Every structure is written in structure tokens, then in C-alpha cells.
């Protein structure tokens, strides 16, 4: 027990200083490399300085807290992990079987860079049937996950100094991907009272001739908000007035959607096909995170440019995962019964959490219409003193407190561009969520009574 608690505090301390350290380290390594070079003391010294591009990118806080929670769990501390964006279900059997058969049948060689014709044809069929958008296989690029699809798109279309317009709260990687492309992320805030949806007037007033890419994510990670068709139409009208502006529509949570909400693909709106890069993938709806398969659909000119980047980096995605993806798309409309069962479970969990957190004093919450995240405003607790812990100043210290006192891992909202909230992933069983809620509730009790909101 003694050893456990020592390890626990060591790991927590490591987390606390991790971000500060990560930036400091680069600087001090650079300095010592330069000092060594100048003094010429050690002929074999290696210059370990890194490119300014890498230095401008922040490490992912979601990955950091997931790693920390895993380390604590491995050391025997019963942490409840609500940090990762990963379904808790197994890949449906029919999909897994298709992967196994691919190996058995020797489908284990390189595929074309853009993906096998079979999987690209299946994707075209899906996009036509489910999303009302027409593509030919040469307008599809299959990659090792939607993350790769997005970063390649950003790299392919942005020039240094271009602006990438990102509504906040945003998925952690968008601004960093913009920075990797030497572009400037322009963050547009939204309000919890407006379901975290982008106000078209805010968009309109933020666009300049430098605006190159607008990134939309619906259903959203981290808020679960779904853009209604009418709002997307208003956004499309604004976009249409800016000839340089493209839209990257991240639709990876498309199938995890709670009726009556419905999904609209941005590319299906009048005049938007030509300027939209649609991204989707298999990780979330089909519980295939480890298979690493996503895709981009768009005008050939842009897709070919992304393919060029891919051909000089990873080449084609896994042949086995592509066979599995064909089986996934064969499950039926929106993933058929297999996906419907998972969505039903997500919905039950969402309902439980929204109801439970909704009753806590000082907490603001919206009912997400999709994905499997809650983005909860706990800012009324900021400023509270916790005995033996110190002041809860922001989303990061609140998450550290919840991990310390409640042994629940959540992600600070600051990682997503909104410090008033924390993100909870409900991709875990209802029983675990019930236990997590009780722990959070208990951990909040000793905090000084929050100011009324
Ligand atoms: C909004 C969003 N887009 C893209 C991705 C990337 O998914 P993958 O690379 O697993 O296909 C994620 C994963 O967390 C996500 O949340």
C-alpha cells in the first residue's frame, strides 16, 4: 500500500510537470547541444535540437492523461478511465472474420497507395447511399486512420501564413495540425448555452483573404453537438462568398447519433462539393480503433495532392484492415444492427450521465446529440480550496484533483480550447459510469460551496 501510494504521488507529480517540462526540455537540450558544439569538448556530441515546426506543436493532453491513468491502473490503483476516445466494444465478429480471412487467403501484400479498388468502390457506394454525395474511386484516399487523412489534407492545402478556422471546443489535433503546416489556427469560441455550435455571424466576421480552411466536426468531439442542416446551410452561404476557403468536414462520429438528430454531410449542400474535403473512418462506429483505417473524399485535385504526401510517407493502409472495412460497409445502412446495438448502449449511458450531472449544484451541461463524450462546465468550482490539495484553479487542476481524490480520469477542457469544462468519455459500461459519477460527486463535496451560476 505504501509503495502504491508513493508510486501514485510520483506519477501525479510527473503529470503535473509534464507540460512545463516538455517545452523546457527542448530548450535546454538545444542549449546544451549548442554549448557542446561551441566548446568543442565532445567531438561525438549529437546536436539534438529539433525543428521549429515540431517545437511549435503541443503534446496531446488526452494521450497524456490516458497514459497516466493506465500507469496508475497498472500499479494497482483502481482508477476509472474516462479519458480515452475509444469504444469499449469489440470489433463486430463479421468484420474481424473478414480480417482473419484476409490473412488466411494471403491478402497480405501492399495495396495501391490510395487503397484497394474494392474498398474505394464500397466507400463511394456508402457516400452516395447514406450521405447523398457522389464520388468516383479516384476521389477517395484510404489512410491509416482519419487522423492521417486530416493531417494530409491540412498539409496539402495550407501554405505558410494561411489561416485555419477552428470552432472551439475542438478536437485536440486540429490546431496542432495547422501549426505543422506552418499555418495559423484561428479559434472561434462557441457557448454552452448555444450547444457549442458555431455562430455564423462570428464566422463571417472572422474570415479574411488568408482564411484557407474551415474545420467542422459533427457530431463533435469533445461536445457531442450535432450541426443541424439549417445551420450548415447558413455556414455554406458564408463559405461560398470566400473563393479561397475550403472546408474539412470531419464526420467520423456520423453513425453515433441519437434520434431525432440527423447527420448532414457538408459536401451535400449546394455548391459545397467542390470545396469540401470529407473525412470519415472506421475507428468509432465500428469499434475498429486498432485497425487504423480512415478515408478522405473530395475533388480529385485535392485528393491526389494528399495521395502524393501519403505515397512518400506511409504508402497504402493495411491490406487486412481494408478487407475488414469492406465487411464493415457491408453490414448495412449506417452499420446495420451491429452498430445500432452499440449506439443504443451509448444512448443509455448518455441519458444516465446527463440526468445525474444535471442535478449537481454549480454544474452546466448540455445533452449531446452524438459521439460518446460529455463536455461539462465545472467552472463554478474554480477558486475552491481543497484540503490537502490546494486551489482548484482551472480545468487542469480540477482533473488532477478528481484523479487524486476520486481516482477518476477525465480530460481538462483546456486541451480542447475551453477551460471552463472537462471532457468525460462514456465509452465504458453503465456500471462503471455509475461508480465514476458517485466518486466525482463525493470528491466535489469537500470543495468550498461553489458560487451560484
Ligand atoms: C474528431 C476526431 N477526428 C478524427 C479522429 C481520428 O480517428 P482515427 O485516426 O482513429 O480514424 C478522432 C479520434 O479520436 C476524432 O475524435
UniProtKB/TrEMBL annotation:
Pathway this chain belongs to: Amino-acid biosynthesis; L-phenylalanine biosynthesis; L-arogenate from prephenate (L-Glu route): step 1/1; Amino-acid biosynthesis; L-phenylalanine biosynthesis; L-arogenate from prephenate (L-Asp route): step 1/1
Source organism superkingdom:
Eukaryota
Q: Which UniProt keywords apply?
A: Aminotransferase, Pyridoxal phosphate, Transferase
**Gene3D superfamilies in alphabetical order:** Aspartate Aminotransferase, domain 1 (3.90.1150.10), Type I PLP-dependent aspartate aminotransferase-like (Major domain) (3.40.640.10)
Example of a GO biological process term: aromatic amino acid family biosynthetic process, prephenate pathway
- Spans through the membrane: none
Please give the cofactor(s) recorded in the UniProt entry for this protein: pyridoxal 5'-phosphate
List the PROSITE patterns: AA_TRANSFER_CLASS_1
One Pfam family cited in the UniProt record for this chain = Aminotran_1_2
InterPro entries cross-referenced by the UniProt entry? Aminotransferase_I/II_large (IPR004839), AspAT/PAT-like (IPR050596), NHTrfase_class1_PyrdxlP-BS (IPR004838), PyrdxlP-dep_Trfase (IPR015424), PyrdxlP-dep_Trfase_major (IPR015421), PyrdxlP-dep_Trfase_small (IPR015422)
- Residues forming the Aminotransferase class I/classII large domain are 78-440
Q: Which family would the database say this protein is a member of?
A: Belongs to the class-I pyridoxal-phosphate-dependent aminotransferase family.
User: What is the name of this protein?
Assistant: Bifunctional aspartate aminotransferase and glutamate/aspartate-prephenate aminotransferase
Amino acid at each position: 500500500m505504501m509503495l502504491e501510494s508513493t508510486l501514485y504521488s510520483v506519477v501525479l507529480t510527473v503529470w503535473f510537470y509534464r507540460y512545463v517540462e516538455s517545452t523546457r526540455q527542448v530548450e535546454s537540450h538545444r542549449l546544451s547541444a549548442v554549448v557542446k558544439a561551441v566548446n568543442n569538448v565532445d567531438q561525438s556530441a549529437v546536436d539534438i535540437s529539433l525543428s521549429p515546426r515540431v517545437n511549435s506543436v503541443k503534446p496531446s493532453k488526452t494521450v497524456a492523461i490516458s497514459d497516466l491513468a493506465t500507469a496508475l491502473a497498472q500499479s494497482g490503483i483502481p482508477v476509472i478511465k474516462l479519458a480515452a476516445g475509444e469504444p469499449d466494444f469489440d470489433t463486430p465478429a463479421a468484420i474481424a472474420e473478414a480480417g482473419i480471412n484476409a490473412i488466411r487467403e494471403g491478402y497480405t501484400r501492399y495495396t495501391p497507395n490510395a487503397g484497394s479498388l474494392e474498398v474505394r468502390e464500397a466507400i463511394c457506394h456508402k457516400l452516395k447511399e447514406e450521405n447523398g454525395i457522389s464520388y468516383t474511386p479516384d476521389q477517395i484516399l484510404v489512410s491509416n486512420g482519419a487522423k492521417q487523412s486530416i493531417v494530409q489534407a491540412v498539409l496539402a492545402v495550407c501554405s505558410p501564413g494561411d489561416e485555419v478556422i477552428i470552432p472551439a471546443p475542438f478536437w485536440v489535433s486540429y490546431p496542432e495540425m495547422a501549426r505543422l503546416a506552418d499555418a495559423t489556427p484561428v479559434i472561434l469560441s462557441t457557448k454552452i448555452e448555444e450547444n457549442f455550435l458555431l455562430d455564423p455571424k462570428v464566422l463571417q466576421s472572422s474570415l479574411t483573404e488568408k482564411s484557407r480552411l474551415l474545420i467542422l466536426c459533427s457530431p463533435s468531439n469533445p461536445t457531442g453537438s450535432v450541426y443541424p442542416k439549417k445551420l450548415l446551410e447558413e455556414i455554406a452561404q458564408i463559405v461560398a462568398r470566400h473563393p479561397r476557403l475550403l472546408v474539412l468536414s470531419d464526420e467520423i462520429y456520423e453513425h453515433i447519433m441519437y434520434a431525432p438528430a440527423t447527420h448532414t454531410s457538408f459536401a451535400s449542400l449546394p455548391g459545397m462539393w467542390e470545396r469540401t474535403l470529407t473525412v470519415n473512418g472506421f475507428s468509432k462506429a465500428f469499434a475498429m480503433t486498432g485497425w487504423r483505417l480512415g478515408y478522405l473524399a473530395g475533388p480529385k485535385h485535392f485528393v491526389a495532392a494528399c495521395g502524393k504526401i501519403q505515397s512518400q510517407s506511409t504508402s497504402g493502409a493495411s491490406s487486412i484492415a481494408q478487407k475488414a472495412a469492406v465487411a464493415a460497409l457491408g453490414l448495412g445502412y449506417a452499420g446495420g444492427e451491429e452498430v445500432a446495438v452499440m449506439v443504443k448502449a451509448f444512448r443509455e449511458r448518455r441519458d444516465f450521465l446527463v440526468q445525474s450531472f444535471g442535478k449537481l449544484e454549480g454544474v452546466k451541461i448540455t445533452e449531446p446529440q452524438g459521439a460518446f463524450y460529455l463536455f461539462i462546465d465545472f467552472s463554478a468550482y474554480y477558486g475552491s480550496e481543497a484540503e490537502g490539495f490546494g486551489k482548484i484553479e482551472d480545468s487542469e487542476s480540477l482533473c488532477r484533483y478528481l484523479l487524486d481524490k476520486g481516482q477518476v480520469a477525465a480530460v481538462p477542457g483546456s486541451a480542447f480550447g475551453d477551460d471552463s469544462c472537462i471532457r468525460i468519455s462514456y465509452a465504458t459500461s453503465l456500471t462503471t459510469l455509475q461508480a465514476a459519477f458517485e466518486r466525482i460527486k463525493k470528491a466535489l463535496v469537500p470543495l468550498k460551496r461553489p458560487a451560484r451560476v
